[in-house]
Write a structure and sequence with these properties.
Helix content is 46%, strand content 11%. The protein is of the alpha+beta class. About 4% of the residues have low confidence.
Amino acid sequence: MAQHDTLVLGRRIRAARHRLGLTLAELGGVVGRPAPYLSQLENGKIEPKYGLINDLATALRCSVADLLEGEAPSRRAELEIELLRLQQLPHYGRLGLPEIRASAKLSDEVLEHLVGLGRALPEDADTAGRGRAADRARIANLELRYEQRARGNYFGEIEKIARESLAAVGYPGSGPVSERVLTDLAAHFGFTVERVQGMPRTARSVTDQRARVIYIPQRNDLRTRAARSVVLQTLGHFALAHNRTENFSDYLRQRIESNYFAGAVLAPEQPAVEFLREAKERGDISVEDLKEIFYISYEMAAHRITSLATKHLEIDSHFLRTDPEGVVQKAYENDGISFPSDPDGSLEGERVSRHWGARQAWNSSDSFSLHYQYTRTDHGEFWCVTYLETDGQPSAITLGTTAKNARFFRGHNTLRQVGARTDDTRPDPALLSRWEGVAWPSATERGHVLSALPPSPRSFTPFPGVDVHDVYRFLERQRPSY
């Protein structure tokens, strides 16, 4: 009997029984088997002996060959069998879903859908898992971005905890937070801070919760300004009573909250708002000034302005961190600007227009100067200032607002105006006709050769990771008469 499929045999026995209108108990009375045994048999969980098959064939008025036929007796039975087998596959089981039984209540249409979905499930569970993780990451990013926009990027509850923590260690209420205050703040939460060699490359800090020590890299690996942020980002988890989590959405939220806590401590709300209000009255709000007064990074200062501007200054804003190719790494907006996004609304990994300040700044002859510009888009006109971070991993940090509110910022009188409407960024047909199929660029190597490269603009796909239109313009400059 081993050569016969017990699932198909069971379904053929059931079909023959239903054809005669017999119950399991009635059939069992004829062949001398209890109803539960026959139920197991019809569900393919028991392999019967040949003698019983002969008795069943006689009772069901068919031949043994009919029962041992290798095909399911109906389309419905075929689907039921396939659904059972799909759920027994290892990659299906790793989904951790409850078993679905193909009972009579399950319609043929639903059964068809379930089987179709099961067939489409990738057998490479690792790839499928990475895909699901990426989807969860995108969803978590979107949800948090929408929340930040609705809040004006202002987390009042974290501001309160930061304010109370500073008061507990004697912060005078103005000026930069001193090293002594930071040391006392760590002690306030029961920790000491030690600089060490040999830190893991993938960790910004390591906390020993038993010994109550926060380890950070030594000074030649992590400068003082950055070290202040790292210590406070780590302390933020404990100040905000974060729990360990394996949920990506919770992890991302905790990361954002701990970073916010660091900014709220290093540039405290009250003195920072007083400083920004005075600057607004003069039309001279500057990220650079906030950075220097509170001894924080340019990126943190720009973040801090987005956190305080809407609530306290009635100014909406946007923030961008991009790589030298204009690929978005971080983004926030509540001023109406439209960032490039994929069909699901995700920003990370998308490339901004070459006309935006985040990319125009790299064309400046002085990479240490700030790049101011007005940009006309389909969604209105915006002003921005871009700072190029050239230490470590190069990136462009951009803070912007509407053209109407630009008058409150230093650099609002710039004469640099750029059009970045959809029509302005559309490829030149003549350029395409000359170079498409002729140019063959090789993408710049990334740190991880096998990682996914950022996409080319949607109308250009032959060379992932390459802005092909930029390549065509480059070739046009080399051979203008081609």
